[in-house]
Amino acid sequence: MSLLETRDLTGFYGDFQALFGVDITLSEGETVAVIGANGAGKTTLMRSISGVITQAPGMVRFDGREIGALPPDEIMALGIAVVPEGRKLFPSLSVEENLMMGCHRRKVAGPWSLDTVYGLFPILKERRHQPGTALSGGQQQMVSIGRALMSNPRVLLCDEISLGLAPVVIKDIYAAFPQIRETGASVVVVEQDVGQAMKVADRVYCMMEGRVTLSGRPSDLSREAIHDAYFGAAA
Amino acid sequence: MIWVDTVLQGVLLGGLYALFALGLSLVFGIMRLVNLAHGDLIVLAAYLILMLVTLLGLGPFVAALIALPVMFAVGWVLQRLVLNRVLGPDILPPLLVTFGLSVVLQNALQEGFSADSRRIPAGWLETASVPVGPISLGVMPLLTFGSAILVTLALQFVFYRTALGRAFRATSDDPVTASLMGVKPASVFAMATGIAMVVVTIAALYLGTRANFDPTTGPARLIYAFEAVIIGGLGSLWGTLAGGIIIGVAQTVGAKINPEWQILAGHVAFLVVLLVRPRGLFPRAFD
Amino acid sequence: MAGYTVTTRTRASQIAAAFALVLLIVAILLPAFASRSLIQDLFFILTMLTLAQYWNLLAGYGGLVSVGQQAFVGFGAYSLFGGAILWGLNPIAGLLLAGVAALIIAVPTAFFAFRLQGAYFAIGTWVVAEVVRLSVAQWKAVGGGTGTSLPRDARDAMWGAEWIEIAFDTRSSAARDILAYWLALLLAVATIGGIYWFLRTKRGLALAALRDNVEAARSVGVDSERMKWVVFLVAAFGTGIAGGLIFLQNGRISPDSAFSVIDWTAFVIFIVVIGGIGTIEGPILGVLIFFGLQTLLADFGSWYLMVLGGLGIVVMLFAPGGLWGLLSDRTGLRLFPIQRRLERRATIEENSDG
Fold first, then answer.
1. Which of A60, A66, B125, C159 could form an SS bridge with C92, CB 3.0 to 4.6 Å?
2. Which chain regions cross the lipid bilayer (chain C) (predicted)?
């Protein structure tokens, strides 16, 4: 049975329909990437899963439970943690306080704690008393990932973590992923960077204009098929 | 020497204004809500303490201790049932709802307690004073000022040393992201207003024991509180204390020159600060 | 765009305009057959309506929630009294002075209050109003803290009062009420007409754009700072005249009555909120409800204000558009349409532009 799934998920962004019946599944321990161009509906998908957008209860299921209509704080408490697009550090909190916010509600013993997060990203320990906003973009992204890990989540949702970062920094951040996966967490990575997504994911969903246009294992998908699913088949 | 005395009395009076202001500052800092009924809630708490004193024969401090949790609950419920519904990008609904609440409270108090002015009896404390060199300082004013410092320290501790304070600041920064961390903004806001009402109750104890009050006393207290908050810089707790002191000193000095100028002098001090430092004395780095 | 025409008129607005014209003629002729107390009631309704329209212009259209309009009512009224007492100025001319005086103190008020963001603007205007009240209370020539009456010779010299006295064959005090009523009618009609005209001009549309979205309005070139100034000063001017008129009719003034936050701001806010903020119809409906409640609950003292405040809260929570908002949402009724609508012209063939 899958840990997290969406069933016929539709979503609206204002009056604009952003999702048209999206079905996505995630198994225990799996890493899934969702790729697609701007406006493909990736953000609406993430917001629907995390509860920022309220849906019909059955449209999102987690561990056999219908969670589509739950508010974000309750979904978080169940074990779905978010690394939001744009990092979204709290500017009036220090690095360490930002990390502590991750386990504000969900205090579950597990592999992740302040010490292990600092072990994963040693630079954060050095700068733990500085305001989060004083850090570089890449370091802020590390805080955001560490903050999500602090709750020892069963599912980690990473929304556009490479957006606005230099390639070398992106590489640094993705270098942490094997360690995150080793602890058994399931991960959903939303990316515009197709190459990066293919490298980390067990399976890939490609979205275009609110629909899943392609899915499968990275090794099974040809470059052309992805190109067509991403940009639309050349007419 | 007479001016030293005047300024010192003003500083102590400033402690009272800081107590009026700290609750307002707290609530604004966390949810950007300006509660126009803040002054009337202070007066409500003063009547509550007065009732406990006269009906149960309690001392004012014990009565205030009982009033604390009651007022916390009042604040919590008010936020949960009413104010949370009107929070949002539009400033109009919260302003108008709290303005309506102010009018309702004033008239409900008038109906319940008549328009007569009252005072919470504090026995010998009312007139007690301690000599400091050639100057004599009232015990109640000293207690007021001490309380203002203690309340500021306590709020500072809650804000910067506890998980609740962390959640306060995170929610103030970004409620959506805070909710992704498991924070329920509606509960955080209710908690904040509850705490603000605890501060309001402490303010009410000193308002009621030091001077007469009646159901229409609230709006003027709101204005002093507001001036202290703006002078201090929005959301800065120590700034709010400093702002209260500035208003207090301006009032006593003004009154010394001409008794009719007391209130006016406080307002003028506020306008001068607004002119010179529009963001207050200790502005937050970001908003 | 052949086949379409831009219009703001609706059938309801045309019927309303015709009805309003009839109503206006009746209102002008009313003193010939109405009782003095009815004239006084109508005076009260008309002046409150005027104040409500200006506050609505500020808050409903300009997004400027002022809790300090009593500064302009009071200062306008005091200027009229001061002019009559110190310079023997005819009170009718004093009305203009009232408006100008309010306009003059509105400049520093705006200067200070605009420094305060959002909600703090509200209390900022209140502080300024307090400063004006406390300062005027120091003005001994107009009675200081206890106030004063309009001098008898100034009252008797009011332009037009003598003519009314003869024409209606009535006592001079009743004649003054009739004069005040006509002036209030003129002021209310000019205010509503002026605001309606303004909202339909390019500037007025810009104001509506500003209310809906400051960023978007700025991006199409609306100078929000300047619009705020214009709206604030216009409202102060009108509010000052209304204040002068109210106390001219009253004949007595004191700092507490002239700068009453309850009378000149709280009531006005409730009228607008209950009737429907951000519409011209709302305050009209609101003032009628307000007057009805006042008549009904006059004997219950503070209960009346509790009901009014409670009603304001309930409306804000459950029907933020006010009663007129409820009504026009249900029926699509608009008496003062501002939106420009595209209408298909009937005569031109369809599908002309593919």
1. C159
2. 12-30, 42-64, 71-89, 95-114, 178-199, 229-249, 261-291, 303-327
